[in-house]
UniProtKB/TrEMBL annotation:
Name the record gives this protein: AI-2E family transporter
Pfam family, one: AI-2E_transport
Entry's transmembrane regions: 20-37, 42-60, 72-94, 146-172, 212-235, 242-264, 270-290, 302-335
InterPro entries for the chain: AI-2E-like
Keywords: Membrane, Transmembrane, Transmembrane helix
Length: 369
C-alpha cells in the first residue's frame, strides 16, 4: 500500500505534462531562432552571390533577346562589356577622382575641426560635442580599435572573396543549383517550387536593375547640385552618394556627412543649401523613382524594411543593412505564393512576374481538385 502512495507522489499530472511540453517547444523555437540569426550571415553571403550572378545573367538575357546567340556566348558578351565599360570609366575618372580623394583626405579633418569650432560657439552645438566626447572616451581604446579594424577589414575581404566566387558559380551554371533545390521537394510540389524560385529570381532581377538606375540618378543629381553650389570635390561626393544609396534609409544620411562638413567650412548658409539639396534628391528618389520601380515589381513596406535592417544589422552587421531589401522581397514573394495562394487559396492577389511562369487559372483548378 505504501509503495502505491510513493509512486503516485512522483506521478506527473496531465496539466504539468502540457506545461513541460509547451515550455520545451518554446525553448526549442527560441534556440532555433538564435541559431538561424547567428548563421544568417551565410545566407546573406549566398544572396549577395545570387545578386552578383543576377546582374550579369540579366544583361546576358537582354543580349540574347536581341541577338541570335546562345546562352554561353551572351554571358561572355555581357561580362566582357561590363568589364570594358568599367575599365573605360576608371581610365577616364580615376586620375581626377584619385586626386580629389587625396584632397578629401586632407580637407575632411580640417573641415571637421572647423565645424566643431563653429558648433562649440553655440550652446546646443557645445552640448552635442560634449556628449560625443563622452561616448568617444568610453570606446576609444587603442587595442580595441586595432582589433576591430583588422577583424572588420579582413572579414570584409573574406566576404568579398566568397561573394565573388559564389557569383561566378551561380552565373555559369544557375540551373544546377535551382534544380537541386527543386529536387528537395516531393514530386507533386516540384513544379510549384520551380515557379516560386523563378518568380523570386525575376523579382531580384527587377529590384537590382531598378536600384542601379536609382543609384545612377542620385549620383548624377548630387554631382550636378554640388557643382552648382560651388562645393569642392563634387565628382567624388557624387560617386560616393551613388554607391552608398544602395543601402536604404541609412545610405543618404551617411553620404550627407562629408558634403555637409565641406560645405560648413564655406559658411553656414552653404551647409543649409547642401542639406536642402540632399533632402530634395532623397525626396525625388523616394517619391518618384522608387514608386516607378516598384510599379514593375512588388511593393515594399518601408516599416518592414527598416525592421529588417535593424534585426539583420544587429546579427550580421553592414551586410544585413545592405541586403535587407532583397531579403524582404524574398519573404514577400514566399508569403504571397506559398501561404496566401497555396494554403489560403486566394489567387486574387498580385505577385509581379508570377504570370510569366504561372497560369493562375490552372493552379486554381488544381487547388479545387
Amino acid at each position: 500500500m505504501s509503495s502505491v502512495k510513493d509512486s503516485s507522489a512522483f506521478a506527473i499530472s496531465d496539466f504539468s505534462k502540457k506545461i513541460i511540453k509547451a515550455t520545451s517547444i518554446v525553448i526549442i523555437m527560441v534556440l532555433c531562432t538564435i541559431l538561424v540569426l547567428k548563421g544568417f550571415k551565410v545566407i546573406l553571403l549566398i544572396l549577395a552571390g545570387i545578386l552578383f550572378a543576377t546582374f550579369f545573367r540579366g544583361i546576358a538575357s537582354a543580349i540574347k533577346s536581341k541577338l541570335p546567340v546562345g546562352d554561353g556566348f551572351s554571358l561572355f558578351i555581357a561580362t566582357t562589356s561590363v568589364l570594358l565599360m568599367f575599365s573605360i570609366i576608371l581610365y577616364v575618372l580615376l586620375p581626377r577622382v584619385s586626386s580629389q580623394l587625396q584632397t578629401l583626405e586632407k580637407e575632411l579633418p580640417v573641415a571637421a575641426k572647423e565645424t566643431r569650432t563653429k558648433l562649440e560657439s553655440t550652446q546646443v552645438g557645445y552640448w552635442v560635442i560634449q556628449q560625443a566626447s563622452i561616448y568617444k572616451k568610453k570606446y576609444e581604446r587603442d587595442s580595441e580599435r586595432l582589433t576591430l579594424f583588422f577583424s572588420s577589414f579582413f572579414g570584409g575581404l573574406a566576404d568579398v572573396y566568397i561573394i565573388f566566387f559564389l557569383g561566378i558559380f551561380f552565373m555559369i551554371q544557375p540551373r544546377i543549383y535551382k534544380n537541386g533545390i527543386v529536387l528537395l521537394f516531393p514530386k507533386a510540389k516540384r513544379e510549384r517550387a520551380d515557379q516560386v524560385l523563378l518568380t523570386i529570381g525575376y523579382t531580384l532581377k527587377q529590384w537590382l536593375l531598378g536600384k542601379l538606375f536609382s543609384m545612377l540618378v542620385v549620383g548624377i543629381l548630387t554631382g550636378i547640385g554640388l557643382t552648382i553650389l560651388g562645393i569642392p570635390l563634387a565628382l567624388t561626393l557624387g560617386i560616393f552618394a551613388a554607391l552608398i544609396t544602395f543601402i536604404p534609409n541609412f545610405g543618404p544620411i551617411i553620404s550627407l556627412v562629408p558634403a555637409f562638413l565641406l560645405a560648413f567650412t564655406k559658411g553656414t548658409d552653404y551647409a543649409v543649401y547642401v542639406c536642402i539639396l540632399y533632402a530634395a534628391i532623397q525626396a525625388l528618389e523616394s517619391n518618384v523613382i522608387t514608386p516607378l520601380i516598384q510599379h514593375k515589381m512588388i511593393s515594399f513596406p518601408l516599416a518592414m524594411i527598416l525592421i529588417a535592417q535593424v534585426i539583420l544589422g544587429i546579427f550580421t552587421g553592414v551586410l544585413g543593412l545592405i541586403l535587407a531589401v532583397p531579403v524582404v522581397a524574398i519573404i514577400i514573394v514566399l508569403v504571397k505564393m506559398v501561404y496566401i495562394e497555396d494554403i489560403l487559396g486566394d489567387y486574387a492577389i498580385e505577385v509581379k512576374g508570377e504570370d510569366k511562369f504561372v497560369d493562375k487559372e490552372v493552379e486554381y483548378q488544381k487547388l479545387e481538385q
